[in-house]
Each structure stands twice: as C-alpha cells, then as structure tokens.
Amino acid sequence: MKLAVWLARLIVGAVFIVSGVSKMVDPAGFAIKITAYLAAWHIDGAIAPGLVVVGGCALSTLEFVTGWLLATGSLRRSAAWSALLMMCVMLPLTAYIALANPVDDCGCFGDLLIISNGATFAKNVVLFALSLFLVRYNRRASTLFAPWIQWVQVAAAILFMMILAIIGNNEQPLLDFRPYPVGEPLVATDEAEAFYVYTRNGREKVFSDSELPADDSGWEFKEIQTVSPASGKELTLLDRISGEDMTDSIIGEGCGETDRMLLLLPFPSEAGAAGSYTANELQAAMEQRFGAGAFVAITAGDDTGAVDSALDVMMATFPVYYADRKAIMAVARGSMAVVYLRNGIVVWKRSLSSINLDRLNDGDLAEVYATDGARWFRLLTAIFLLGNLIIYLIGLIPGLFRRKN
After folding, report:
1. Are 52 and 34 within 8 A, CB to CB?
2. 214 DSSP 8-state letter
3. Exposure on the CB side of residue 73, measured as CA atoms within 13 A
4. Degrees to nearest 5, angle at CA 51 with 111 and 17
5. How far apart are CA 326 and CA 321, in angstroms?
6. SS3 content of the chain, % helix, strand, coil (to 5)
7. pLDDT tens for each residue of 99-146
C-alpha cells in the first residue's frame, strides 16, 4: 500500500507541478487562454484583464503548491483534498470542452504541451481517480519533511511561483515554448501547404496541388484548406498603406545582414505616452548605428483609428507594418514589447517598460539588453530546491535532540 500511495503521489504531483510552472512562467499567455474560455461563454468583457491575470496566477500557484506537497508527502490530508477538489472542477469542465469544443486548446500546460480536448479529459479522469485514492489512503505512507515545518514548504513554493510570475509578466517568460524563441528566425523556413476540397455525390475528398481531379471526373471544387507551417511561424508583415507583403524584406532573408529592432503593439489602443519616450530613444539609437529603417513597429491593423491615435500620441516617425494580432502576441508578451533581430534571428526580446535607457550607450545593443531566461529559471529552481533541502534538515534537528536525551 505504501508503494501505491507514493506512486500516486508522484504521478499527480508531477502533473500538477509541470502544469503550474508551465503557466506561471508566462502569466500573460495563460491569461490569453483564459480569455478564450470567457469569450466562448460571452463573458470576456465582464472581467477586467488584470483580474484574469491574477486569477490565472492564483490557479497556477495552487497547482504547483499542491503538486509539490504531494510529491514530498507533506500536509497529507490537505494536499490530497486540494487535488481532489481541483479535479472536481476540472473534470466536468474538460468533459464539456471535449464535447462542445469551445476552444482548440485547454491550456492545461500553457504553451509547453498542446494536447487535444479528448486527451485532456482522459488525463483528468486518471488524475481524479488517483486523487480520490489519495484522499482515502494518503495518510498510510510517511512524509519526508517534519510535520511542524511543512508550512514553510508552502511559503517557499508560493515565493518561488511569485518570482516566476513577476519576471514573466514584467519582462518576458523565463521559458519560451512559442514558435519564436531566441536564437531562431522570425520567418518560417517551411511554407504553408494548401489542400483542395472537392465533392461528388455528397462525398468530400481532399486533394493536394499535384493530384487535382480532371474537369470531367465529376468532382466539384468546394474550398481551399491551408495547413500552417510545421514550425508554427505565421508572422506576416503588410505595408500599412499599400497592403503589400513586406515580410521578407523586413524580417526575412531579404533584410540582409543587418540589425533591426521591432516594436510590437498587439493592441494599439493600449499603447500610450508612457512608452513613447523609450521607443523614440531606441529608434534614435538604432538609426544612428544602422541607418533609417532599423527601428520599425508592428501592430494589428483591424482598427486603423486606434493605430493612428497611438502613433500620434507617440509622435512616431518610424515605419509601421500590420500583422495578425495572435502572431504578434506569440512573438513577445506585453502591450508594448521590443524584439532585437540580427540577420533575421531573434537575439533578445523584452517588454518596453523593462528597457533601462541609462544603458543605451553601454555598447552593442544586442548584448546590453540580452537576457538568458532559461539560465535564470535553472538558478531559481536550484535555489528553491536548495531551500527545501535546508527546510528538511532543519526539520530533523528536534529529532536529533530527542535521541540524545
């Protein structure tokens, strides 16, 4: 029985830990997924965006703390009930999602792992069963940490998650699971593939470009289906005036061997005077080093009035291109974000508010503002684990004194 309990603890705990961390490193990304749910239920306008972020962080923290307590055998009653109560909510929710399919991705693991709605429901059935088992039998196995110090574990886990969220929300996610990570080009190397749907006698069939049916075959054309590039990169830049595709010349192979800085404005109505000075200073620095056109803005073009208003407020003199809002938000988080490219390759990306202008003349901009999120994540994780080791050792001290006496 003890082996079965520990196995259940580790399975449920590991899933909760991965789920919590994968979302907490990217609070804005999880908020986007929550908003997709709210939009499907037509209540997205009823909840303030800030509350969505806070709610997402609270859920991610609860998942991680519960998972960590289960994995270490701590707070045996509370941890088991916490897992079961969460599954009592998640199981019917994912059952509804699997049947109604209101969203394409449940968002259970952020952008780390995308699984189907059916697979999500199956996963939660297993987790529900294991959580129910732990509520009944979790106290049959021992704990690793002394009972009197286990609440310190909770505090350490909450602090760890808060640090991840603060960095991910104010700068950029420490771990980037999106299609545009540092070190890779923004433009897909593989192209989208088109397939052609034909019908005949009430039956549909999909043909590739090289196997289209003959005109006298009886097949009638219905529609074209486009499959996105395998890389998932769908960022296409359109000239704001002419609508011409400028992707290759601005961020692709046609841009040549040069450095370019992109100002991303997914929601132009949210771009205000607060970031105007920083943006203009960055533009001046880039153009001084690399010439005109080295600093460009990319924004969503579905509301030209909001774009015009934002550019007037910012007193913008830099080129502006339109792109799909979802693609912009996949490149970098934040209402105003900056991406640095060298020969079309992402060197770094940050929120505009995290740019320290005092360092603008400290050297190569590709190095001055460079970040290494993965290294910081490893460091923070190591500190968290070391802290828990210290907590564990402190918990042993009273027992050592009792033995001496």
Report:
1. yes
2. P
3. 17
4. 40
5. 15
6. 55, 15, 30
7. 888 887 788 898 888 888 899 999 999 999 999 999 999 999 999 999
